[in-house]
Amino acid sequence: MDARNEMLKLLGNRREGFSLQQSFYIDPEFFRLDMELIWYRDWLFVGHDCEIAKPGSFFTMQVGDYPVVVVRGRDGVIRALHNTCRHRGSRVCSAQKGMAAKLVCPYHQWTYDLDGSLGFARQMANGFCKEDFGLKPVACESVAGYIFICLAGEPADFAPFRTLMEPYFTPHRLTEAKVAHETTIVEKGNWKLVWENNRECYHCAANHPELCKTFPEAPTITGIPTVDSDPEMLAHWARCEAAGLPSRFRIDEAGQYRATRTPLLRDAVSYTMNGKPAVKKNLSDAVSTDRIGTLMLYHYPTTWNHILVDHAVTFRVLPISATETAVTTKWLVHKGAVEGVDYDLQELIHVWTMTNDEDRRIVEENAFGIKSPAYEPGPYSELHEGGVIQFVDWYAGFMGQRLAEGSEPALRSVA
Predict the structure, then answer these.
(1) DSSP output for 358-411
(2) Residue 303: inside a domain, yes or no?
(3) What percent of the chain has pLDDT over 70?
(4) Looking at 150, 183, 216, which one is the last position of a domain?
(5) 190 with 271, same domain?
(6) Do 325 and 192 share a structural domain?
(7) DSSP secondary structure string for all residues of 42-86
(8) Residues 309 and 196 placed together within one structural domain of the fold
(9) pLDDT digits (tens, 9 = 90+) for 330-362
């Protein structure tokens, strides 16, 4: 039986409320299907527009087999392009980030403008038409300081996500922020294990002493629909909305993305060891109260986020293989905040630096155990792991539908 039919069969026989069969976490063919049917077809968070604030600034990433460059043009427009030269396929931009007046392939110096159009190709034959060989575009959208791309030939409508997210995030003015620090760690586990670990705090008390100084362990905090019945959450939403900040739990129909504000413990306003602000300058003058807790955004399969009054912590997930996942964390502060004056960098990053490393260890131990022939799916806690159940249900439904369609992703054609 081929991998597609095997996966469809296992999803059809899946026991709800239980973890997935071993193949979903370790099999390279199952991983290939994840890439083809989710990662190459859906909207993916890749970075922030404040990272490429000036024309010519760019950053790159690798999404499975696809190298991509995101660049701001001279017209101010942010574009994503396949980072593959139209001559013989060499990667054009090898740096993770930088500034460039033109995008020049280092192999034979084919030179592209910032919009991807080919401007120069040395000593080509008569009749060669530059207009036919621009860098291939990738669908790209920017919303409230976040950049998303989609590799599919016919991307899903981005408007519903924009409509849900924009009112929550616009007051925080992340378009005017800057990245104070960035780290990438490679977790030796499947991307779904990274997400499953993120979607519950059942493990927090025993594993995250730093985070537990300020972040509640309550099951409702992980962003599931039952949050609407939590009196503490209702009171927090009312307080935030009185300050003009949309706060109530919102989720799309398919369960792929959601946003909500949640309180921190006691009087904490930031993810620091004492709960006090890590940055003297708030992210935004439009947020007039410190008691906003954290604005949380989840968007499968690439990002979860915490937006506080003084800074933001954003996360990007990118799979490397069936058993390796890169997790990039960025700490954003007000663009005018000065390190050593307005914030101490180690204080700013300490809690999530420690938490990330603790989560890496957890995921790797989880992955190590799943490789055992003795592994079989186990039951999730309905009380504490509702977020995990929701994620796995989303994944199973999403993949089941796309497997049944039997279609493959198509490259976006040149405009």
Answers:
(1) HHHHHHHHHHHHHTSTT----BPPTTT-HHHHHHHHHHHHHHHHHHHHT----B
(2) yes
(3) 95
(4) 150
(5) yes
(6) yes
(7) S-EEEEEGGGG-STTEEEEEEETTEEEEEEE-TTS-EEEEE-S-T
(8) yes
(9) 999 999 999 999 999 999 999 999 999 999 999
Partners of 63 in the beta sheet? 66
pTM for the whole thing? 0.95
Residue with tokens 């190709």: 121
Q: Which structure tokens are listed for 308?
A: 């506080």
| Number of structural domains in the chain | 2
The reported pLDDT for the residue numbered 414 is 38
Output the CA torsion sign for 283, 285, 287, 291: positive
Query: Looking at the DSSP assignment, which residues form a beta bridge with residue 194?
Result: none
**Beta-carbon-side half-sphere exposure of residue 72 (alpha carbons within 13 Å):** 17
CA dihedral 10→15→16→18, nearest 10 degrees, is -100
What is the extent of the structural domain holding 109? 44-150
Closest by CA to 279, choosing from 309, 312, 310, 314, is 310
313 lies in a domain?
yes
Could you tell me which of 366, 148, 332 has the C-alpha nearest to residue 257?
148
How many residues in the chain?
415
230-236 LR contacts (CB < 8 Å, sep 24+): 232/263, 233/262, 233/263, 236/261, 236/262, 236/263, 236/293
Kindly give the pairing relationship between strand 78-82 and strand 66-72. antiparallel
Residue 68's nearest CA partner among 46, 53, 48 is 46
Average pLDDT value for residue range 27-37:
98
Contact 81, 68 (CB under 8 A): yes
Return the H-helix or E-strand segment holding 304.
Answer: strand 303-307
- Confirm if 254 and 301 have CB atoms less than 8 A apart: no
> Are residues 211 and 239 both part of a single domain?
yes
Q: Is the peptide bond before 301 cis (omega within 30 degrees of 0)?
A: yes
Report the amino acid identity of residue 373: P
Greatest extent of the chain over all pairs of C-alpha atoms, in Å: 74
pLDDT level of residue 225 (50, 70, 90 thresholds): low
